[in-house]
Structure formats: structure tokens, C-alpha cells
Specification:
Elements lengths: L2 E4 L8 E4 L2 E11 L8 E8 L5 E7 L3 E4 L2 E12 L2 E6 L5 E5 L11 E7 L2 E7 L1
């Protein structure tokens, strides 16, 4: 279940939702509060799946959504091109996922992947 975090508590490397996409925060800077306003946070992030850069400025007390990230390990059962059937090492369930083009993997190898809001991102070989 996604949770809410304040913009002022976001750190580099954390995950937030921007424009409906899960993003990894690259940098965050805070401006000091003025006479009539609150502190502002400038957040620069990159989309995990689409790799687009996103920039947002929010008040320090604004709430942002943080997606659930389940880090898992699996073993490749079968492979056809860039599509692989991967068996989860904890639950022994199999899932079909697309492997990155630059990943040189074969059947029987173990890999690390993240499940973010029902979508799968393959991180690499174990």
C-alpha cells in the first residue's frame, strides 16, 4: 500500500510518485522560509520505468506518495528472446517478465527484480 511522506523528508535515493509514475529522487534542495511563506522543496527525480527526468517544487509540508517496492529474487525457468519465465525464490510462483536488452542471462541463472505497484523492473543478475 503506498504511503504518504512530507516533501521536506524526501532524501536522495528514495522513491516517490510523480505524474503517476514511480520515480527515484536524484536530488532535493530546500529554500528557507520567507516572511509570508513556508519553505519550498525542489525535487529532481527520474522515472524508474520510463527514465524521464521530472522536476517539482512543493511546500515543505506538502504530502507526496511513496510507492511500495518489493525487492525479490528469482530464477529463470525458460527464456524466449527478451521474455523470460521467472520463478520467485520465496513463493515458487512463476511470472513472465521482459528482460533488459543488455542483460545476458540464460536459463537457470538467478536475478534480482523489483515489483512496484504491480509492475516489474528487472535489476540484474544475482
Amino acid at each position: 500500500m503506498p504511503k504518504q511522506i512530507e516533501a521536506s523528508s524526501v532524501k536522495s535515493g528514495s522513491m516517490i510518485m510523480l505524474d503517476g509514475e514511480p520515480c527515484e529522487v536524484r536530488s532535493m534542495s530546500k529554500s528557507s522560509p520567507g516572511k509570508h511563506g513556508s519553505a519550498k522543496c525542489k525535487i529532481k527525480a527520474r522515472g524508474v520505468f520510463d527514465e524521464k527526468d521530472r522536476h517539482v517544487t512543493k511546500p515543505g509540508d506538502a504530502n507526496l506518495m511513496s510507492p511500495d517496492v518489493n525487492k525479490k529474487e528469482g530464477q529463470i525457468v525458460s527464456k524466449d528472446g527478451n521474455i523470460a519465465q521467472v520463478m520467485d525464490m520465496d513463493t515458487y510462483e512463476t511470472e513472465e517478465m521482459q528482460l533488459p536488452a543488455d542483460l545476458d542471462a540464460s536459463e537457470g541463472q538467478q536475478l534480482k527484480y523489483w515489483e512496484i505497484d504491480g509492475r516489474i523492473l528487472v535489476k540484474g543478475l544475482k
